[in-house]
C-alpha cells in the first residue's frame, strides 16, 4: 500500500472552514486560494492520435499545450477499458468490482461517494456537461446537462433537471459552448470543478462539417500488425472488432449511397444518424461523401485492397473528429487565459480509455493490450503548485488516481476506501513511494465485439493476462522486446520464474484491491 496521508492532516487544518468556501493563506505560497478544476475527458481518444504522445498521424496543438505547460503522463492506464466502468472508476477512485460498474449495461449507483460530491460538500461549485453514460441521474453537481446514453454528433439531445431538449449544431462545439457559458455565469466567489465530457471521437466518427476535407490528401501509415493472424492468442482470434471483418462500410465508413445499392447490416442504423442533420448540414456533408461513394462504387475493392481502403477511410473520420476536440479545448484554454483563471486552475485532459487505430487489425478497446489499456493523461497545474521534476511522468498511474488527486489539491480529506493515490506524491517528490505494478479486470462478455473476460498484471516490463469464463488461457508479454504484444511467451520454460513472480504479484494486487471473490471470475 502507498502512503498517501501525510500532507492531508496539514490540508485539513488549513481548510477547517469546509463548506463555506473561505479563502486561505499560507506563508510559503502566498494567497492559497483553493484551485479550480477543469476536467476534460473525451471518449475513445487513442494516445496514438495526440501529437504530444505520437507524431505519426495528426497534430493537436491545443491539447498539447496542456502538456507543454504542465505534465504528460507517459504510462497512464485504466482499470477496465470501457466507457461506463471507466467513468465510475474516475468518479469514485475505486475499481469497478467495488463501485459496482463492471460493464456498460449496469445502472450506476450515483448515491455512492464520488469526488464531485466531496468537492461540492467542501464548498466547490460543481458542474458536469456532456457525456455521462451511467444511466442514473448525476449527483454531486450543482449543474448538469448531459447527452442521453452515447449521444449524437449532430443536433444532439441534452438532458437536464427539466427534461430533454434538442440543440442545433455539432456535439463537441455545443458541449464547449455550454461549458464556457457555465463558467461565464458561475458565482465568482467559490472555487469550481467543471467536468467537460465529450462524445467525440466515439464511433461512428462523424466529423464536424468544417473538418470534412482535413485529411483528403493524407495516406496514413498502416500499422505493422494490421494483418495479425493471432497465433497463440485465442481471445484475440475470437474478438469481433476487426476493421476488415466487422467494420461496416455504411455505418462506420459513411458509404450511404442515394441509390441504396450498398446494403450492409447497419445501413439503417446509420441512416438514423445521418437524418439528424438539417438540410444545410446534409448539403455540406453530401458534397464530401457523394464523391467518395461514387469512387468507392467504381473501384469495387475486394480483399487486401478493401482492407487498406477501410483503414484509410476510418482514420480520416476518426482524426477529423479529434480536430474538432482540439479546437474546442483551445477555446476553453483561451477562456481561462482571458479571464485570469489559468493561474489558479488545474486542467486535466484524458479519455475514458485508449483505442485501436488498426493495431492487430482492430478498432474499439476492451483488451488489456497496450493501445486500449493506456489512456492519455495531461495535467497543467497552477504555477505555485507546479513541480520542478520535469514534464514527463513515467510512473504507472491509473484512473483510480484522479479522484484522490483532485481532493488532495482541493484540501479535502480522502476517504480510506479510495483505492487510488494522489498524483501529487509523484509531482512533489523526487523519489516517491509508488506502485510497481498495475491491476486490470474486464467483464463485458458475451457482448458486442466479443472480447473475453480477463484480468491481469502489468509491471514496467512484463504483462500477464488470464482470459476466463468460456476459456482458460494465459498470455505473457515482454514489453521491452515485444511492444506490439504479438509473441505470447506463456508456458515457455525460460519464462517460468518470471511467470511465477507475476502470478504472485497478481494475487497480491487482487487482495489489495479486494478482488478475491472467485465466484465472480
Ligand atoms: C457502442 C459501439 C461499440 C462500442 C460500445 C462501447 N457501437 O455500442 O462499438 O464498443 O458502444 O463504447 S455503436 O454501434 O453504438 O457505435 S463505450 O465507449 O461507450 O464503452
Ligand atoms: Ca469509450
What can you tell me about this protein's structure?
Belongs to the sulfatase family. Keywords: Coiled coil, Hydrolase. Residues 358-511 form the N-sulphoglucosamine sulphohydrolase C-terminal domain. The protein folds into 3 domains: 9-19 and 34-205 and 319-433, 3-Layer(aba) Sandwich (Alkaline Phosphatase, subunit A), CATH 3.40.720; 234-315, no CATH class; 440-520, 2-Layer Sandwich (Arylsulfatase, C-terminal domain). The protein is built from 15 helices and 18 strands. The protein has helices at residues 6-14, 61-69, 83-92, 96-99, 115-121, 171-185, 234-237, 243-246, 267-274, 279-299, 303-338, 370-373, 402-410, 424-428, 496-512, and strands at 24-26, 30-32, 36-42, 71-73, 76-77, 125-130, 143-146, 157-160, 163-166, 192-197, 345-351, 377-380, 392-393, 397-398, 438-442, 453-458, 462-468, 473-478. The strands form 5 sheets. An 8-stranded mixed β-sheet has the order 7-6-10-3-11-12-4-13, with helices on both faces. Strands 15-16-17-18 form a 4-stranded antiparallel β-sheet, with helices on one face. Strands 1-2 form a two-stranded antiparallel ribbon. β16 and β17 form a beta hairpin. The longest helix is centred in the middle third of the chain and has 36 residues, at 303-338. It is globular. The two termini are 24 Å apart. Bound molecules: 2-deoxy-6-O-sulfo-2-(sulfoamino)-alpha-D-glucopyranose and calcium ion (CA). 2-deoxy-6-O-sulfo-2-(sulfoamino)-alpha-D-glucopyranose (SGN) binds at residues 43-44, 82-83, 104, 133, 150, 202-204, 364, 448-449.
Amino acid at each position: 500500500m502507498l502512503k498517501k496521508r501525510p500532507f492531508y492532516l496539514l490540508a485539513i487544518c488549513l481548510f477547517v472552514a469546509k463548506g463555506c468556501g473561505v479563502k486561505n493563506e499560507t506563508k510559503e505560497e502566498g494567497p492559497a486560494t483553493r484551485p479550480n478544476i477543469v476536467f476534460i475527458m473525451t471518449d475513445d481518444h487513442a494516445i496514438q492520435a495526440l501529437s504530444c504522445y505520437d507524431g505519426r498521424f495528426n497534430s493537436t496543438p491545443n491539447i498539447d499545450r496542456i502538456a507543454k505547460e504542465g505534465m504528460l503522463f507517459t504510462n497512464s492506464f485504466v482499470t477496465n477499458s470501457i466507457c461506463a466502468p471507466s467513468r465510475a472508476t474516475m468518479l469514485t477512485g475505486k475499481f469497478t468490482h467495488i463501485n459496482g460498474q463492471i460493464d456498460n449495461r449496469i445502472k450506476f449507483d450515483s448515491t455512492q461517494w464520488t469526488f464531485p460530491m466531496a468537492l461540492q460538500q467542501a464548498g466547490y461549485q460543481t458542474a458536469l456537461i456532456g457525456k455521462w453514460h451511467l444511466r442514473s441521474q448525476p449527483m454531486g453537481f450543482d449543474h448538469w446537462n448531459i447527452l442521453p446514453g452515447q449521444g449524437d454528433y449532430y443536433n444532439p439531445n441534452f438532458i437536464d433537471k427539466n427534461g430533454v431538449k434538442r440543440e442545433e449544431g455539432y456535439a463537441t462545439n455545443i458541449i464547449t459552448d455550454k461549458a464556457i457559458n457555465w463558467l461565464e455565469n458561475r458565482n465568482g466567489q467559490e472555487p469550481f470543478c467543471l467536468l467537460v465530457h465529450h462524445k467525440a471521437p466515439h464511433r461512428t466518427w462523424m466529423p464536424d462539417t468544417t473538418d470534412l476535407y482535413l485529411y483528403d490528401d493524407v495516406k496514413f501509415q498502416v500499422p505493422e500488425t494490421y494483418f495479425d493472424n493471432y497465433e497463440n492468442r485465442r481471445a484475440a482470434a475470437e474478438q469481433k472488432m476487426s476493421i476488415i471483418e466487422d467494420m461496416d462500410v455504411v455505418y462506420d465508413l459513411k458509404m450511404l449511397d442515394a441509390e441504396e445499392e450498398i446494403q450492409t447490416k447497419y445501413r439503417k442504423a446509420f441512416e438514423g444518424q445521418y437524418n439528424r442533420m438539417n438540410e444545410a448540414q446534409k448539403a455540406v456533408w453530401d458534397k464530401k461523401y457523394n464523391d467518395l461513394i461514387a469512387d468507392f462504387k467504381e473501384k469495387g475493392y475486394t480483399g487486401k485492397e478493401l482492407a487498406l481502403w477501410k483503414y484509410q477511410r476510418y482514420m480520416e473520420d476518426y482524426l477529423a473528429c479529434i480536430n474538432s476536440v482540439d479546437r474546442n479545448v483551445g477555446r476553453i484554454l483561451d477562456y481561462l487565459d482571458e479571464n485570469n483563471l489559468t493561474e489558479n486552475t488545474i486542467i486535466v485532459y484524458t479519455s475514458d480509455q485508449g483505442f485501436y487505430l488498426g493495431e492487430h487489425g482492430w478498432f474499439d478497446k476492451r483488451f488489456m493490450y497496450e493501445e486500449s489499456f493506456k489512456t492519455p493523461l495531461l495535467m497543467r497545474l497552477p504555477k505555485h503548485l507546479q513541480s520542478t521534476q520535469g514534464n514527463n511522468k513515467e510512473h504507472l498511474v491509473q484512473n483510480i488516481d484522479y479522484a484522490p488527486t483532485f481532493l488532495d489539491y482541493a484540501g479535502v480529506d480522502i476517504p480510506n476506501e479510495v483505492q487510488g493515490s494522489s498524483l501529487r506524491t509523484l509531482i512533489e517528490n523526487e523519489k516517491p513511494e509508488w506502485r510497481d505494478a498495475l491491476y486490470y479486470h474486464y467483464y463485458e462478455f458475451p457482448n458486442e465485439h466479443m472480447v473475453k473476460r480477463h484480468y491481469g498484471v502489468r509491471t514496467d516490463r512484463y504483462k500477464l493476462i488470464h482470459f476466463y469464463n468460456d476459456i482458460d488461457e494465459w498470455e505473457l508479454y515482454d514489453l521491452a522486446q515485444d511492444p506490439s504484444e504479438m509473441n505470447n511467451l506463456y508456458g515457455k520454460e525460460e519464462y517460468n520464474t518470471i511467470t511465477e513472480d507475476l502470478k504472485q504479484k497478481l494475487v497480491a494486487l487482487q487482495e489489495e484491491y479486494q478482488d478475491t471473490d472467485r465466484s465472480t471470475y
